[in-house]
Design goal:
The chain has 368 residues and is an alpha/beta fold. Helices cover 26% and strands 20% of the residues. The protein is globular. The protein binds iron/sulfur cluster.
């Protein structure tokens, strides 16, 4: 059996008395019978062992602006090598990447890329960071950890773009290797989570609190506003109140626009006014960094909470100006701006040896 087809044993599982396996990577706690896969499709029981079928099999790879994740306070204006795979542990009716997230690993074209190959690609594309994104990276936790360890050895940063649906046991093991995350807070009602994502709200809130207070990870939050489902001022007020009380006033919050997709095609695209109103309310309540996304009509700039001047100008995902100093202070008034604005210094380490190692494996890294 070649390297490309070798199964990768999963972490975070145990054998149950009835012979099935219990996966405790995410709050679904799937009990998986022999020959079956969990809800996410890519964690499968074969002969009593749980395997991660997606390990080293990204189905989508791009070099994106980091603002597209979205991260507005983490190395702004840089690019990020972004990769995702098949499967997801939520069942969002409005998924915008459903072609891969709702597929099994054998239903998508994928690559075979060992962690070293990913890191070398990021270096060669001059991207100072790597994002696990597009589908839900939690279900890929083993690959995230292995790739991130090597990325850090070469001076790169690592990013999760996640739904935050992860158990406490796994969270600390995965995020020990992650520098920044954008976490979707898809709504502020259990009803929305239960009916439209087939999951639950509380574990996401718990993960956000743990990330903020018990790890070193820089976090930003995305709230996709869907007409009539989660876009009332009252719900936005409750969501912002929770963020303020539990995470603080300096966690960036991105309100983004929905467009009809997948199983939710009977709702219109979010009008820009809804995003403007939500942003206005969040700022009046005291959140310092609030953004609008997926629209072109403003709300993307970073404003200094000290002097009110524009510090980072953005048009869509393009950054035209950064007036935050590398020590994270406003160039005009010296106020501290939350986030990471240091100049990326990479790659470090022996890139020649990394390249040699990857080249020696050429032939096993391939499209499958
Ligand atoms: S990661 Fe996948 S298999 Fe594991 S509990 Fe979650 S949905 Fe189930």
């Amino acid at each position: 059996m070649g390297t490309a087809t070798k199964l990768h044993e999963a972490r975070w599982w145990e054998t149950l008395p009835d012979g099935r396996v219990h996966c405790y990577l995410c709050p679904r706690h799937c009990h998986v019978g022999d020959g079956q896969a969990g809800f996410c499709f890519i964690r499968a029981n074969q002969g009593g062992t749980l395997y991660n079928l997606g390990y080293a099999h990204p189905a989508a790879i791009h070099v994106d602006p980091i603002e597209k994740k979205p991260l507005n306070h983490f190395l702004p204006g840089t690019t990020i090598l972004s990769l995702g795979a098949a499967g997801c542990n939520m069942g969002c009716f409005f998924c915008q990447n459903w072609d891969i997230s709702k597929s099994r690993s054998d239903q998508v074209h994928s690559y075979y890329l060992e962690p070293e190959t990913v890191v070398l690609a990021a270096i060669e594309y001059q991207s100072p960071s790597i994002a696990f994104t597009y589908n839900e990276p939690t279900i890929w936790g083993e690959y995230v950890i292995d790739t991130s360890k090597i990325a850090h050895a070469y001076g790169l940063k690592t990013v999760m773009v996640t739904n935050g649906y992860i158990t406490r046991e796994a969270l600390f093991e995965v995020y020990e290797h992650i520098d920044a995350a954008n976490v979707d807070l898809k709504a502020y009602t259990e009803d929305f989570y239960a009916r439209l994502t087939l999951s639950h709200l509380q574990p996401v809130l718990d993960a956000l609190k743990a990330l903020r207070h018990e790890t070193h990870v820089w976090i930003e939050i995305t709230n996709l506003l869907i007409p009539t489902l989660n876009d009332t001022q009252e719900e936005t007020r409750l969501l912002c109140g929770w963020v303020l009380e539990n995470l603080g006033d300096d966690v960036p919050l991105h309100f983004t626009a929905f467009h009809p997709d997948f199983k939710l095609r009977d709702k219109p695209a979010t009008p820009p006014e809804t995003l403007h109103r939500a942003r206005q309310l969040a700022m009046e309540m005291g959140l310092k960094y609030v953004y609008e996304g997926n629209i072109l009509s403003g709300g993307a700039d970073t404003i200094c909470p000290g002097c009110g001047r524009t510090l980072i100008s953005r048009s869509w995902h393009r950054v035209s100006e950064v007036r935050v100093k590398s020590d994270g202070t406003c160039q005009y008034c010296g106020a501290k701006i939350a986030g990471h604005f240091e100049e990326p210094s990479f790659p470090s380490g022996d890139v020649k040896s990394l390249r040699k190692k990857v080249e020696a494996r050429q032939g096993s890294d391939r499209v499958v």
